[in-house]
Amino acid sequence: MNNTRHINDGAKIYLNGLGLGSIATAVYLVQKVGFEPKDIHIFEQNPEKDLVGGSCDASTKIIDGKPVYFMRGSRMYEDKVYCCTKELWSLIPYNDHESCLDDHERNREECKVDTVVRLLHANGEKDSGHNLGLGARESMEMARLMATPESLIPDDAKITDYFSDTFFETNYWYMWRALFAFQPWHSAVEMRRYMRLFFHRMSDMEKMTSLERTRYTNYHSLVLPALRLLDDKGVNIHYNTRITDVDFTGNEDQRWIKRLHIENREGVVLSPVEVQAQDRVFLTIGSIVSNHSFGSHHEPVSMSQKGPLGGAYLLWQKISSKQTGLGRPERFMRDVSLSKMMHFTVTFRGNLFERKFQWLVERQMGRQSPLPLTQSPWIMHVHTYRQPFFPAQATDSCVIWVSALGDHHSGEFIKKPMHECTGREILEELLGHLWPDIDEDEKVEILDTSHCIPCRLPYGISQFLPRAQGDRPPVVPKGSQNFALLGQFVEIPDGIVFTTEYSVRGAIIAIKELVDSSISPPPMYFGQHDPWTSLATAKAVIR
């Protein structure tokens, strides 16, 4: 069936939430398709702009008269893998003279990553990462997984099904985990997809010269400019409002969404939206930031679930119970112990931490790749940025973000699980790993002049859980006449979840199939087909 639509027939577009999938869809519709902005409606449950963007958010609050910064995620980029993301950036004005892509490219040239200290081992031992630690056995295991067709990988296969215990003690694994947040029990299919798409960067694992970051936070460099564009164009963003359920008509061969059920943030039911056959509905399903909880410098994160399940997950549960072929959300919520992660944002006052860290890694802030602390029981990875990281950040402050995958373990210096620790205690543990012999006066100064905000994400890495065919629905489900699914829990062949690229590519696919067939995502790049790339990778593996 030809789903191509004309853009001037009064059709309306409905989207749920201001996650990246919805934002990308709206931007493409306005900037590339030429869809009438006033006919696009986005329902966002949050009341404020600085709480949107999913894991690309960033916020500021005033504590004791001074700004404190925090966020729920931090995304990195690379030139060949993130082709959809960069195309999206090219469509968004950053200022009167530049697109977001223009600013990103300029920032990349101004602050190139060229890592010297790639890992930090026990007792502060530095490691350049030149030796990946891969022996003949581990190399063969990697080659075997990459060569195995995805169709031959069993349902629910784990990374541990393809790799021996020694693989998880290599420098390669430590660096890989710091970049992508994989755990040994995660999906072998997802591991294979990442290995194939990032094959061309294996030889750069040491220096990470290919790593790119936005000038400021992902929110300020991407989300906020996109929201300004949509506002200026006249897209209808309904804050404090969410889609709670939908009604379908038809059967699996031909089915439509005919009605959207709406309520406000306080749970007050609003008038439903009647969806006409020519309209289109794009629903984001699932969310890696659902049911997050923040702690503070003096309080640990809450371990109790805050309120009901997050809206995007709850909506997915409802629609999948009504219709076949819409995925199995329970598969990604089955065990929080396998899907959780923690992280924390630290605002440092004065320049003591910044000076000490730059001396430690032998690089300026922003020119260092994520730093794995390989002996940390909390499995901490330190992400540092060009400063200022927030646009209005004071010149005498420094902001970093640290991810952690082992919050249930007791710390090495703070003898209790990370999720039981205050932000100050978490920061003290970090300082102990960075500088085991830190001067006590310097330690106290950093602790007393900084503010650490921890965050717990129960479903932060749930998209990596082992899965079976059908657990993730296609972007446009079988028989759909007017609806598509977006986000990190749809199935995009060969695509890699936990990236902005996945959300943007899904949005482009949805538009191509339901709105304008002339719109297509850029092709994925697989460097293993280039002989010179394969030779460089082979040299990196055996050095």
Automatic annotation (TrEMBL):
Gene3D superfamilies for this protein: FAD/NAD(P)-binding domain (3.50.50.60)
Pfam family, one: MCRA
Molecular function via GO: oleate hydratase activity
InterPro entries: FAD/NAD-bd_sf, Oleate_hydratase
Enzyme Commission no: 4.2.1.53
Keyword terms: Lyase
Enzyme class: lyase
PANTHER family: 67 KDA MYOSIN-CROSS-REACTIVE ANTIGEN FAMILY PROTEIN (AFU_ORTHOLOGUE AFUA_5G09970) (PTHR37417)
The name this protein goes by in its record: Oleate hydratase
Organism listed in the record: Rubritalea tangerina
